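Box S1 | Example of a co-folding query
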Amino acid sequence: MPGNLKPTIIKRILRQHLLLIIFLPVFIFPSFTSADTIKIGLRAHQGIEKSMKQWEKTADYLSEKIPEHKFIMVPLVGLTELMQEAEQNQFDFVLTNPSSFVEMELRLGASSILTLRNKRQGNPYTKFGSVIFTRKDNNDINEIKDLKNKKIVAVSKPAFGGWRVAVRELLNEGFDVYKEAKQVSFSGGIQQDVVSIVLLGNADVGVVRTDMLERMAVAGLIKFDEFKIINKKSTKDFPFALSTQLYPEWPFVKMRNTSSVLSKKVALALLTISSQHPAAVAGKYIGWTVPEDYQPVHSLMKVLKLGAYQHYNESPTEHFIEEYLVQLVVSIFILIGLIFMTIYILATNRKLLVVKNQQDKLMAELEMRVAERTQDLQIAKELAEQASNAKTEFLASMSHELRTPMNAILGFSQIIEYDVAHQQMDLVKDNINEILVAGRHLLELVNDVLDLAKIESGKYELNLQKVIVSKSINDVVSLLKVLANKNKITIICEFENNDDLTIMVDLRSFRQALINIITNAIKYNQVNGEITITVHKQNDSNCKISITDTGEGIAEDALEKIFEPFERVSNRTNIEGSGVGLAITKNLIEIMDGKIVVESTLGVGSTFSFIFKQAG
Ligand code: ADP
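Box S1 (continued) | Returned holo structure for adenosine-5'-diphosphate
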């Protein structure tokens, strides 16, 4: 984007609208004119009124010479506005200063068809330059280097002869006016104002185009000798005060889309205009000539980096950065914003993922716990059901076992009653005996059940002590000797070298367990059978007590049942017993940290063993 388009949009719109209001008739008029209206954009550097007075007759002259068209001048004071209108194809031709033309040439493809032969002091001039001046009485300023820290004034920054030519000349002489002058100001308006400002002492130095001072002197506005010319140059055939090199005069410019036929007609008309013609007189020119070489203008613009040459000799990067600085900064901000946003989104995603994973994990754990809990509950339910069933079975068995002796007692009591009524006293004694047997059995049963209940409820109190195994066995064997003899059973104790083995047990419970097992070995033995009791060391630390009988044995599938209460598996129903002895024994052994095992072979015999840890 060229530098002269950089002002803010608001400023630009205001300026455009201001111009629109001022020159409304000029802008509106062409739109009502016929298609044959030819518009000539005019740089009105002296103001609208003066410029129109100077140039409208030339437009009339062209209309007269080329009657199929109506030529009108469209004056614009500012070069920027002139350029903008040209960009929007508002003109067919343009009459402007050389640097403005070069800009249009470079950017819009315009071309010069003629160069003005300016009339000064009655003579034609096709070249002009700048004049740098100060007041004659200013003794501080005599040459270019004296301009340092001085106030310099010119008409406008884009003025060609009125400023740019001088700037370039000063630069050639090693003086950068923008850096070294104290102040550079632009009067705006017309160049004559610059002369007045210097004259009034409001600026030290002025710059105007050549012949301006002479013209004002002729008009009686100033006295020429009131001024001192800085960097004065004298050039052959150029009689005016001059501080710089000369540049070609204003060109008559054809815009790119203007037809070459029309351009040729215009060029011919202007080339042949007489210097006496009112248009030439009003325009203060002698006439027009073929286009001058505008290369010096190009080189000036390159040096000053003006217009299309603003980035001349700069690296493309530098140019790019300057040109697109705003876009670049905005893009970088957007990019940074996007990067931050992306990072934020990624971080949020990650957090969400972590939270989701945690949730999944918790969910899985929860499901697992629910499954475990459900399983536990299922097991608990099954156990509860089993316990309930066991309890029901136990109660059923117990009531059956209790009922049997009770019925016997009741039955024999009735018989006794009958015997007594019929004076059969000899039978009474036998039947009382039966009642006694049934009563004892009932008592035994009740005691066993109470013992079992006590053990199972954990209320059974143990008094653990070191007990010599062989001694306890001998005591129990002598206690049961009578029963063994009665059943013709021989009891053999084989302690070998283990008769001093000790275990930690509750003596009463241990003896009770021995009594139960040895009693069974006697009860379920055969006539003339044997019982062998052995004590062994097992694995060095254990003590194994085995009671082996030569009885009927127990079927394999009944082995598990016999430790349940009221489970009696023997076919011999005449053998006394409650079916609770083994259940009590197993419980007693286990609460004393022991173990009971059974091995049996039907028809051969059984071996019940207790295993205890040896006491220290
Ligand atoms: P019981 O009072 O009937 O003897 P137990 O609980 O002591 O009750 O024994 C349960 C059952 O185990 C017995 O009824 C019997 O069928 C069987 N039993 C126990 N000990 C022996 C053994 N030494 N030989 C064969 N069967 C036995």
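Residues 1-35 have pLDDT under 50 and may be disordered. The longest helix spans residues 325-421.
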